[in-house]
Amino acid sequence: MKKLILLFFTIFLFGCNTKSYNTAYNDYYKNQQLYINALLNNDKKSQIKALKELIECGEYLNFDISTYKKKYQSLIKTSQKKVKKTSYFSKYIKIHSTNPLKITIPSNNIKHFVIKRKNIYKEVIDIKNAITPKFIKRKIENITLKIAQFNKNTVRIVYSSNKPFYFKYEIKNNKLYTYLYPKTTLTKKTNYKKTVFNRKKVIVIDPGHGGKDSGGIGIGNRYEKYAVLNIAKKLANILKRKGYIVYLTRKSDYFVPLKKRTHYANLKKANLFISLHCNIAPKHITSPRGIETYYLSPTRNERAIEVARLENKEIANLNYLDQRVVLNFLNKDRIISSQKFGIDVQNNIINTLRKKYKYIKNGGVRPAPFWVLVGTQMPAILIELGYLTNPLEVKRLFNPTYQYYLAKGIAKGVDSYFKKNP
């Protein structure tokens, strides 16, 4: 009787809905998956909530939950520190992006006005009781953006151009958003959109590596991060001309963590995610060549595992959850669509390049456990564009004309996929 009362008290005390051992067991693994999703999306609040449930269920099931407890305590401490710091830094604005502009502001106390002079058009926003840590100047087409400290308590945002332009702003949840483009392009854009069936499709292109992470280093000391960025920019331009909405995870040479790349794609509600990389062979081996496309899936193929191992270096020291467990939990519903997308892209790359170049090797489409594809909420592929350790392919990968046709082939693959999967 005492044992029964104790068991009832334990079940009542914990928020795990543990009506039975089986229910507790199911709740435990359900919250484990919720935690993994929150982890990949960098959602701290959801991580804390899922970890709390995991700990409660784990204690009832007598599981080893020491790792989860440490992580939970760490997150709680971090969140408490942030609350304390808020008042100290409450006047500072935080710039998330400049095109379109997205800023976290300390209050909604802003003033907007327009300055019109001969050949000068300015849209000005003053943010009161605010501080910016740095001066920013950006060129967006023929419009100049400046963000600076106007006086002790005011941050000024100025858009200026020698031609009229469309400007709009809004405030949501202490965030300021601005939208603009030249007025001369309005009619052109409207007319173009009428003929473009895919104008609402969003593509996120991920140029691999960047900044401190050079990626592979090939013949002639050529870095992977530069080749894939140039190809990504060409691909973005081609897709934009076709009417797609396109975003890049990085636009220049800086480092972006793997988790943030997929989180960015999810944030943009992308329809497709394309990660671009270059292959390298072991030292002093120059014969391997070819273009390969991968989609996320657990695999036993040694070749695919080895390629994934090279690209997964950033999370090799992941200690709070086994990478394999994460792979088994996620993306199961998108494996088939990613495989179809990969086949369309691979075929179109090969066909496009073979019309212009000899010795184009088709490396095929394969499953592989690439971490950068984990957590995407859309079909996602990773393309190994060629070998930096192959004398012929490394020259081509840094040749602008070859880069263009490579990008053109990928874009054709995107078209092909959407024709079959509108």
Provide a concise account of the structure shown.
Residues 262-415 form the MurNAc-LAA domain. By secondary structure, the protein is an alpha+beta fold.
How large is the share of residues in beta strands?
Answer: 25-35%
Assigned CATH class of the largest domain: Alpha Beta
- Spell out the helices and strands N to C: HHHHEEEEEEEEEHEEEHEHEEHHHEEHH
Question: Which consecutive residue ranges, at least 5 long each, have pLDDT under 50?
Answer: 1-14, 84-89, 184-197, 314-326
Classify the helix fraction into a percent range. Answer: 40-55%
Spatial ordering of strands, largest sheet = 13-10-14-17-15-16
Largest sheet composition? 6 strands, mixed
Instruction: Specify the CATH homologous superfamily of the largest domain.
Output: Zn-dependent exopeptidases
Cα radius of gyration in angstroms = 25 Å
Name the average pLDDT: 79
CATH architecture of the largest domain: 3-Layer(aba) Sandwich
- Per the CATH scheme, the topology name of the largest domain is Aminopeptidase
Number of helices: 12
Number of domains: 3
- Termini, distance in Å? 62 Å
Indicate the structural class: alpha+beta
Number of strands: 17
The gross shape turns out to be globular
Please give the structural blueprint.
Blueprint: H1 2-13, H2 21-40, H3 44-61, H4 66-88, E1 94-98, E2 101-104, E3 110-117, E4 120-128, E5 136-140, E6 143-151, E7 154-161, E8 165-172, E9 175-182, H5 186-193, E10 202-207, E11 217-218, E12 222-223, H6 224-241, E13 245-248, H7 258-267, E14 272-279, E15 291-296, H8 302-311, H9 323-329, H10 335-354, E16 362-368, E17 380-387, H11 391-397, H12 400-420
Parallel strand pairs: 10-13, 10-14, 14-17, 15-16
Antiparallel strand pairs: 1-2, 2-9, 3-4, 4-7, 5-6, 6-7, 8-9, 11-12, 15-17
Helix pairs in contact: 2-3, 3-4, 6-12, 10-12
InterPro entries: MurNAc-LAA_cat (IPR002508), N-acetylmuramoyl_amidase_3 (IPR050695)
GO molecular function, one term: N-acetylmuramoyl-L-alanine amidase activity
GO biological process, one term: peptidoglycan catabolic process
